[in-house]
């Protein structure tokens, strides 16, 4: 068992072809020079440069914005001059009251469970890599894969707001306006999507290879 | 660490897992088979017969459906004698009008620009490969398409449309528009396209003339 880095090779992030590291260059130096893939021409790195600090910054920013996303109204429904601000949880409750529990469940998962699970997962992965943990690398990689795959579905609430704002424009009778909570929530989703992208799961396995027990 | 193993590897067909960096030889796969990393289980390679031709057909279908989905309303509301129509671009316009330019841009990119550019770009790449014209634009264009793949969110928009309709059905009359059917077919076509299109086949074409 041997990794590409140990063999002096770099796998291209896009086309997955193996590139040979120029001779005489140590694996530790390979992040400094800019190399390009011989097949597709993209810039290649053995590991994503500054993966941990970038991911930390994005996760912390997302955690801060998660507070206004849940406290501020995501939209306000005005009916006959009477405004009713909605936040993320009240949107789920209104679907429940309409006896639409399958949809309520989807929105609850997409808007509440997934963002929290995603933030906690990224935080856990960052901490485990920081302490060079050798605990269950396969499961941690699977967790990362799920996080990267599912994160975009949190955008559903933003789209619902956009559609409602577009459709419900009946003058004095009923209008819907978007709130600052929606802006914060969209930012949380975008930041965590980018954070999942900047995290390099190969760092999980580097700790295993470097640990003396293996 | 065993150095002997590297001698048995053929570097042109070997792959390093993109999630754990383990070097491994990929066995010859039959049609429909997939190869997973032996250490972390990530998907390393899949083989589909005629992946590029089929993908080209789905991409052209998708482009036609995308245009039809934009021509007519997806959903309409009727209340107090006023009919309100919504199509794909309506949400983007409404968010700009509501002084939320950031959310408007987000809508514009995720539901219009990325999906449209992705279809046009995929058709350009596949058509040129089909005709044997390996233009210098193919590699950077296909790289861009791969890296923006997650940001086209039409299928999420469809689910949001259903949620919005359910929220409104108590208050007003909700009428499905004719473009909604084209839109549903578009989502199915896009899902099939992403299953059929095997990026490795595109990269293999780019590698051939040089080696």
TrEMBL record, chain B:
Lineage: superkingdom: Bacteria
TM region positions: 56-82, 102-127, 148-166, 178-198
Annotated signal sequence range: none
Protein name per Swiss-Prot or TrEMBL: Paraquat-inducible protein A
Organism: Leucothrix pacifica
Keyword annotations: Membrane, Transmembrane, Transmembrane helix
Keyword set includes Transmembrane helix: yes
Keyword Transmembrane helix annotated: yes
């Amino acid at each position: 068992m041997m990794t590409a880095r140990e063999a002096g090779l770099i796998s291209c992030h896009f086309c997955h072809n193996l590139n040979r590291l120029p001779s005489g260059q140590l694996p530790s130096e390979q992040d400094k020079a800019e190399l390009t893939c011989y097949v597709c021409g993209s810039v290649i790195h053995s590991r994503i440069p500054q993966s941990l600090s970038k991911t930390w910054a994005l996760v912390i920013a997302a955690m801060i914005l998660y507070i206004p996303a849940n406290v501020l109204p995501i939209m306000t429904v005005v009916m006959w001059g009477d405004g009713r601000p909605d936040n993320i949880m009240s949107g789920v409750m209104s679907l429940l009251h309409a006896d639409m529990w399958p949809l309520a469940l989807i929105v609850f998962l997409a808007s509440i469970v997934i963002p929290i699970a995603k933030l906690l997962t990224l935080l856990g992965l960052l901490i485990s890599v920081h302490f060079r943990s050798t605990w269950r690398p396969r499961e941690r990689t699977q967790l990362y894969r799920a996080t990267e795959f599912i994160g975009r579905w949190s955008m559903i609430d933003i789209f619902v707001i956009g559609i409602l704002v577009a459709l419900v424009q009946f003058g004095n009778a009923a209008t819907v306006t978007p709130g600052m909570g929606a802006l914060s929530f969209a930012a949380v989703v975008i930041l965590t999507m980018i954070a999942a992208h900047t995290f390099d799961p190969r760092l999980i396995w580097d700790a295993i290879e470097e640990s003396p027990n293996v | 660490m065993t150095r002997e193993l590297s001698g048995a590897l053929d570097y042109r067909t070997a792959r390093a897992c993109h999630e754990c960096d383990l070097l491994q030889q990929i066995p010859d796969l039959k049609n429909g088979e997939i190869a997973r990393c032996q250490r972390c289980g990530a998907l390393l390679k899949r083989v589909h017969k005629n992946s590029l031709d089929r993908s080209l057909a789905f991409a052209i279908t998708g482009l036609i459906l995308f245009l039809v989905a934009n021509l007519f309303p997806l959903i309409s509301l009727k209340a107090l004698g006023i009919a309100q129509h919504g199509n794909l671009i309506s949400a983007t316009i409404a968010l700009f009008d509501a002084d939320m330019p950031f959310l408007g841009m987000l809508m514009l990119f995720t539901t219009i620009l990325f999906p449209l550019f992705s279809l046009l770009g995929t058709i350009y790449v596949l058509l040129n490969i089909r005709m044997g014209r390996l233009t210098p634009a193919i590699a950077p264009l296909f790289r861009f398409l791969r890296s923006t793949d997650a940001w086209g969110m039409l299928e999420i928009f469809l689910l949001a449309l259903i949620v919005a309709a359910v929220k409104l059905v108590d208050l007003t009359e909700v009428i499905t528009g004719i473009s909604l059917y084209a839109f549903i077919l578009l989502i199915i076509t896009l899902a099939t396209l992403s299953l059929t299109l095997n990026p490795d086949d595109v990269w293999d074409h780019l590698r051939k003339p040089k080696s």
